Amino acid sequence: MRSRRWMRVVTTPSGAVAVALLVLVIGLAILAPIIWGDAASEVNDSAPVQGPSSAHWAGTDALGRDIFYRVLVATRLSIELAVMASLLGVVVGTVVGTAPSVLPRWAGRWVSSAVNIAVAFPSLLLVLFFAVVFGVGTTGAVLAIGLAFAPGFARLTQTLSAAVVGRDFVAAARVAGVGRLRILVRHVLPNIGEPLVVNATINAGQALLAFAGLSFLGIGVQAPSYDWGRLLGEGLTQIYVNPAAALAPAVAVVIAGLAFNLLGETAAAVIGVRTGPTRSGPLPATPGRDEPIDASGDQPVLAVENLHVAFPRDGRWATPVRGISFAVRPGEFVGVVGESGSGKSVTALAVSRLIEHPGVVTADRLDFAGVPMLSTPERELRPLLGTSLAMVFQDPTTSFNPTRRVGRQLAEVAEQHQDLRRGPALARAVDRLRAVRIAAAERRAGQYPHEFSGGMRQRAMIGMGLMGTPKLVIADEPTTALDVTVQGQILRLLSEVRAETDAAILLISHDITVVAQTCSRILVMYAGRIVEDLPAADLTRTPRHPYTKALLAVVPDLATDREQPLVAIAGRPPAPEQIPAGCAFAARCPLADERCRTDDPALVQVAQLHRVACWHADDQHDQGTMG
Amino acid sequence: MTAELSSPGRASAAQGLRNPWVAFLIRRLSWLVVSLWVVVTAAFLMIQLVPGDPVRAALGTSAPAELVQARRESLGLDDPLPTQYWNHLRSVLTGDFGTSMTTDLPVSQLVGDRLPTTVTLAALSFVVIILIAVPLGVTIAVLTRGARWRGGELAFTSASVVVAAIPEFLLAVGLVYVFAVTLGWFPVAGGDGMGAWVLPVASLSIGPAAVIARIVRVEVLAVLGQDFVRTARAKRLPPWRIYARHALPNALTATLTLTGLLLTGLVAGTVLVENVFALQGLGSTIVQSILQKDYPVVQGIVLVYGALVLLVNLVVDLVLAALDPRSTIREA
Ligand code: SF4
User: Fold this and answer.
1) What share of chain B is helix, strand, coil (3-state, %, to 5)?
2) Which of A159, A508, A597, B125 supports an S-S bond with B204, CB 3.0-4.6 Å?
3) Which of residues 183-242 of B touch A (CB under 8 A)?
4) Higher-pLDDT residue of A176, A1
């Protein structure tokens, strides 16, 4: 499997380029001195410092030697030195980096501190430092570059092995009395080998560049030997007469450096991350199946017909929401309930126009306050949605910007949509914080989110929604991330908001107890469909869908607090990219028959204000009343 | 600066110790002192480790033995090692870096002469890098977010990998060829006025700008995926406001952590670039001194480089701590 992964590196475009370049460079390193070694050192007094010509592609140097051949021949020494230096760096770095896990604790700490100080210095400065110690010349330069790269590698090894050491199998080995050195060799090193190799490759590229720099400065390779850096240094002095003398070695260094870097980077990308999303085919057809929503009565705040949401995933379309229709009327408190993955949160985002590319939202109708949201340009929707549609998200800790004061984050809404200046906008924010019962609102407005408690943050989030005059508040699992003690407060606050402002509320929750206690109407979702839509009062009396019944069955008694552990419903909901034909609940349904497995039931009216999507809704109901 | 930053905790000593800012500063400054001590010691050991007799090496094999002996004595090289170390520490603390063996000038004067060039070069490049990299990174992030425009993403990443792989001195050679030799717009080396800075600064900035732009893009994309950006969208703020007010500041805090690396890398980059353009800075001086084996000068410049790097890291850490309200420093 490992070798297959490395094969993947070669098959990516950049990987293929890198390998081709590397083969070229290594081929030259081996062959060039054999083929052109003599030609490159042939002195020609009659033609010193000439520009490019057909005889000398890159011109000649001060002694009339052919620069092009010299660049080719220099490949071997340049690559050799770079590889030697980086090998030295890798070996020293690995030893130093793993030392803390083998040495006694105090010694290990000393080693880590030394590494920490050393990595603060850029490697070129370390190279210069070691170059002084080891003296000017080839050996000195190899030692200097190798040792200068060691601290960075040591740090990497340390970080990687620290992660491995924390894993279970190492702990198990330790408990079993395996020695530290043995743990290191048997368990740690094999597990960090791959990233180390990748980084060593990148390191070799950097060593090559460092060497070129050092020789260019005159500190590295000394005459009569020559590598690319020295050719470059010599060429630069003649740049007016023959620019090719400097450009040819420069190009060689860039190509070779790129070969190493590109290979390392590609390998890192392939090994580190999964391949990116591939193109998905055309969107699946989205026929409407449910009965259109009831058009009588007041105009609904939110009218949804045949809503679909699709995301491309691994070349296919995943459809977390598959054609749902419902309406929310002014002042109504609607709960949406279902297991995680049932599509309820995606529904919340879709009806508030917050699904982002590459997600696709389609619907026969998606009206908010009578405005069709899918056909109106976003710019025109902003003022309406900004003041009339409030969102409350699941996790108030991450939903506030950590670097801005809470008051300002609220005030922003008024500045944007109500044309208030900074001062009045902030005053309104303080007023709204007070409205959601935050004590010392003035002081709190000047604080950062992390200075708030979880419940307080969620109240501030609701306050943010109240900056305008919301017609609809969409609360997506608003209590899930909070302590049980504050959950009740938040739900009560939402009820109060509804009572005081006459805003409708769409409360999304996985907890049927929560919605049953607070909502007036309940939508039960399963695998991207609404399977039942009924008044909250009927929930315990006349549930018709087997899934609703199963949800209720896991709750021992709605009236009492849950003390016993809940019995989960056997099985799992289907993944949104693998929806079966027929009823999506069939695999878990006790009443499923042949028809259920082939035909998907539509959501149809079965009683006043009661819709169900089940072939056996009626039999069940009869059974339920008779039994 | 210290007094300013710790001002919240000035009330009383007891309160001061509990103030996280004071604790952080104490921790950070003691780390600085330890690192400085390591640098000073390393600079001392450097000369001790030089193979053979540094004075003989510097003066050449033909120098008379008396002169070598006199020099050794004036440098104190014949004293026992602890004495030498003690003298070294004392003179460094009093700002005495010794005397150049080739010019007989005090090293401190030499460093004072050359430091401004290097600092100007690094500072100008830093400004240019930030001015290019941040807008570029943000723009690319916005254009390629949510897997939009994969072609652009690929082109940008490959281009930045290639550009970043070209070291500054090679870029310098290329730029000299194009803009100085072929077009004749700027001087190859020397020259005065702003024109003389253009090519050196460009060769120092382009590579790091590509790297930073890439990092900014990744950071911005990461921030755009955060819950609070969804909240900002739910507030129906126009996109530019979301990017400018919510995404960018958060992405920059993360990017700032890398500024330390960037700046210290620039300090190192000046060494080669000064040599290509024959600028009289610390970098060209240290290289000349290494070749001439003028060890007191090398030692002095190593100390200055070390101190510069440590100072940059300190400033970046302090700025980070001041900017990030969640910073563990205050809560710790
Ligand atoms: S349609 Fe069939 S499988 Fe689906 S819920 Fe009703 S009875 Fe069960």
Assistant:
1) 80, 0, 20
2) B125
3) 188, 226-228, 230-238, 241
4) A176
Q: Is A214 in the pocket of ligand 1 (CB under 6 A)?
A: no
Q: DSSP assignment, residue A60?
A: B
The pTM is what? 0.75
Q: What is the DSSP letter of B9?
A: G
What pairing do the DSSP bridges indicate for beta strands A389-392 and A472-476?
Answer: parallel
Print the SS3 string covering A253-300: HHHHHHHHHHHHHHHHHHHHCCCCCCCCCCCCCCCCCCCCCCCCCCCC
Q: Is the CB of A601 under 6 A from ligand 1?
A: yes
Cα(A593)–Cα(A368) distance, rounded to whole angstroms? 39
Beta strand A371-372 pairing with A365-368:
antiparallel
User: Taking 80 as the threshold, does the pLDDT of residue B52 lie above it?
Assistant: no
pLDDT tens digits for range A257-275: 888 877 877 777 666 533 3
**Domain extents in chain A:** 2-44+56-273, 302-330+341-469, 544-627
Which ligand 1 atom sits closest to the C-alpha of A547? 5
Q: pLDDT tens digit string along A198-221?
A: 788 888 888 888 888 888 888 888
Complex ipTM: 0.79
Residue A564 has pLDDT above 60, yes or no: no
Nearest CA to ligand 1 atom 5: A614
Of the residues B173, B221, B326, the best mutation for testing chain A's interface (the one with the most A CB atoms within 10 Å of its CB) is: B173
CB of B42 within 8 Å of a chain A CB? The answer is yes
Q: Please classify residue A568 by burial: count the beta carbons closer than 10 Å to its beta carbon, then call 0-12 exposed, 13-18 middle and 19+ buried.
A: exposed
Cβ contact B325–A402 (<8 Å): yes
CATH for A2-44+56-273? 1.10.3720.10
Q: Residues, chain A, total?
A: 627
* Chain B residue numbers touching A205 (CB-CB < 8 A): 165
Whether the CB-CB separation of B296 and B75 falls below 8 Å is answered with: yes
B313: contact with A, CB 8 A cutoff: yes
Please name every residue paired with A311 in a beta bridge, in sequence order, or none if there are none: A318
Please state the atom number of ligand 1 nearest to the C-alpha of residue A593: 2
CATH number of A302-330+341-469: 3.40.50.300
pLDDT in tens, B175-217: 888 887 777 777 666 666 667 788 889 989 988 888 888 888 8
Q: How far is A233 from chain B (nearest CA, A)?
A: 9
DSSP summary character for residue A302: E
Cis previous bond, A224, omega within 30: yes
Which alpha helices (DSSP H) does A273-370 contain, by range? 344-351
Give, using CA atoms, the residue closest to atom 1 of ligand 1: A614
Mean pLDDT, residues A312-324 taken together: 85
**Tokens encoding A103:** 């040495």
Mind listing the domains of chain B with CATH numbers? 118-279 (1.10.3720.10)
pLDDT at residue B90 above 90? no
Residue A273 structure tokens: 């991350």
